[in-house]
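// run 5 | inverse folding | seed 20
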């Protein structure tokens, strides 16, 4: 539920009828943020959690419908087991600490990806958070955990074609992990790289892309406002003609 009035949104510099319904974020740069400060990588991941908290809160308050966050990719399984273990521990700790407030804010949490790869304690924590918030009607937060876009597409296509050999685009879209959220309107990547890294390959077909050099732990609500202002100025043609061209 949107907390701010139209006047308040305008005061932030936002355009009320040009707020994306579905934002996806590749939250990259935690490690480099820490290294640049002479800190160990885990300190970057910890700081990254604070950024997640601030961005969930603000997107909820401005009335975004869905927020899909890339937290751990299928490729991230290649990282040293110490780092993977630390990320698992941080996930459990953060969800347990924040779940009551998220629930109070009417946020509905869902994980996307293959959760079964994680230790049981991670699976249980995530499932409990999903269960607790499942009837909430506010911001839909999709957390990508052991997620890969290609794996998601293989799964969705198998399911769709098992139902019908004539499965069309909408039949496949129905079986994506993010089916409830639809296509992505704005994809943000922090951390300076301009690549997709196997995230939401289907859902970003017509997304507006926004790349920033800001490292994820420094991605404050002011940084999100910059991205949203930039988005508001884009001319989304979806292959058609813009308003002038159509005249
Ligand atoms: C993103 O930060 C978080 C995860 C992938 C879990 P990184 O850990 O990739 O940070 P950099 O890219 O090494 O700085
Ligand atoms: C993408 O970041 C995955 C997440 C943010 C979870 P990476 O750091 O894994 O991406 P690459 O390896 O630079 O492409
Ligand atoms: Mg990275």
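// decoded
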């Amino acid at each position: 539920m949107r907390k701010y009035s139209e006047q308040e949104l305008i005061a932030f510099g936002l355009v009320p009828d040009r707020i994306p319904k579905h934002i996806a974020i590749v939250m990259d740069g935690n490690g480099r943020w820490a290294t640049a400060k002479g800190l160990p990588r885990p300190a970057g991941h910890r700081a990254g959690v604070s950024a997640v908290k601030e961005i969930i809160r603000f997107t909820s308050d401005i009335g975004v419908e869905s927020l899909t966050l890339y937290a751990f990719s299928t490729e991230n399984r290649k990282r040293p087991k110490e780092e993977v273990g630390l990320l698992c521990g941080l996930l459990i700790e953060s969800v347990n600490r924040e779940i009551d407030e998220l629930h109070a804010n009417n946020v509905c949490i869902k994980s996307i990806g293959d959760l079964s790869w994680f230790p049981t304690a991670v699976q249980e924590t995530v499932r409990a958070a999903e269960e607790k918030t499942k009837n909430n009607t506010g911001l839909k937060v999709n957390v990508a955990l052991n997620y890969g876009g290609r794996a998601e597409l293989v799964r969705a296509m198998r399911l769709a074609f098992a139902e019908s050999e004539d499965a069309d685009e909408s039949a496949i879209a129905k079986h994506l992990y993010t089916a409830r959220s639809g296509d992505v309107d704005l994809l943000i990547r922090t951390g300076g790289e301009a690549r997709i890294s196997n995230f939401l390959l289907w859902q970003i077909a017509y997304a507006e892309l926004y790349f920033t050099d800001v490292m994820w732990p420094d991605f404050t609500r002011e940084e999100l406002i910059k991205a949203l202002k930039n988005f508001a100025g884009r001319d989304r043609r979806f292959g058609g003609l813009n308003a002038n061209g159509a005249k």
